[in-house]
Amino acid sequence: MTASYDDIASALAPHGLLARGGFHPGAGDGLPEGSVVAVMVGNAGPGMWRAFAAGRRDEPDAMNRWTKRALDPVAARFGASAHYPFEGPPWFPFQRWARRCEAVHPSPVGMLIHPDHGLWHAYRGVLAFPADVPGLPARPDAESPCARCADRPCLAACPVGAFAPGAYDVPVCADHLRSTAGADCMALGCRARRACPIGRHRAYLPEQAAFHMEAFLASR
Ligand code: B12
Ligand code: SF4
Ligand code: SF4
Q1: Phi-psi category of 61—alpha, beta or left, where left has phi over 0 and alpha has psi -120 to 50?
Q2: Is 115:202 a contact under the CB 8 Å cutoff?
Q3: What are the domain boundaries of the chain?
Q4: With bands split at pLDDT 50, 70 and 90, how would you rate the model's confidence at 1?
Q5: What angle do CA 33, 17, 201 make, to 5 degrees?
Q6: Which atom of ligand 1 is the closest one to the Cα of 215?
Q7: What percent of the chain clears pLDDT 70, i.e. is strictly above it?
Q8: How crowded is residue 201: how many other Cβ atoms within 10 Å of its Cβ?
Q9: How far is the CA of 111 from the centre of ligand 1 (A)?
Q10: Whose CA is nearest to atom 40 of ligand 1?
């Protein structure tokens, strides 16, 4: 079945997932040969968390497995293939792809910042289509909110200075999270993320932030 961009967005919506633009993959992107359009799938704010909380199972990698159960059938229905940010290494370059699709920009803390979602968003997969997708939006243009943020509160907020220019000191962050003093980041999410004034209305719920922090620490 030929899928329009709106069809894809509608199929994702019950899972709290968003269609986040698309791009025309080239040979260097590592997607299946013959892929004509790739549509990025992601989340912003608590929408996906609510769907996940309702449908999760007691299993390891619960969110990644839930994501596959949600996205694989959408891909099959539209004759696409689904690929995931958690499959690797080697990792698919999701952040590079995202910049080809939406007005997202690198922030001083490594995550991409979105003009509306701030730092409260992520990517859950990409759907690769062997044909054009009618209605695929052009990449919107907007400057990075960081360009007008002189104080950069994100950088000052980390209690252990894990962010040096252009680098994120993962062991320093993880050691702090394992200490008593790291309870605040563990319970409510990364302080740097919380300090950013952009997209606060999209902030993750405390249980959502705690889930991601646990998953991050478990991966270290
Ligand atoms: C490996 C990895 C990690 C590693 C190492 C990160 C690092 N310093 O490089 C660890 C486990 C530490 C990590 C942690 C986190 N990560 Co991470 N990670 C990845 C992963 C799987 C691969 C990145 C990669 O190497 N790509 C390969 C290169 C070739 O592709 P690229 O697009 O060009 O990747 C660039 C980025 O990685 C970037 N980068 C460099 N430094 C940092 C630092 C941070 C914090 C991030 C997020 C990115 C980043 O530079 C790369 C080269 O250009 C991606 C998913 C993916 N497949 O892209 C997620 C990803 C980058 N992570 C993501 C997130 C959200 C996090 C966490 C914030 C998770 C959380 N707790 O909520 C944490 C940060 C910890 C904290 N303080 O909160 C998101 C970022 C979303 C966004 N808005 O941009 C991604 C895209 C996953 C997703 N599902 O959306 N991550
Ligand atoms: S606090 Fe300012 S510099 Fe830091 S991510 Fe947010 S907008 Fe960008
Ligand atoms: S989670 Fe806490 S310790 Fe780690 S980078 Fe964020 S603010 Fe720093």
Answers
A1: left
A2: no
A3: 5-129, 145-218
A4: low
A5: 135
A6: 71
A7: 100
A8: 10
A9: 7
A10: 110
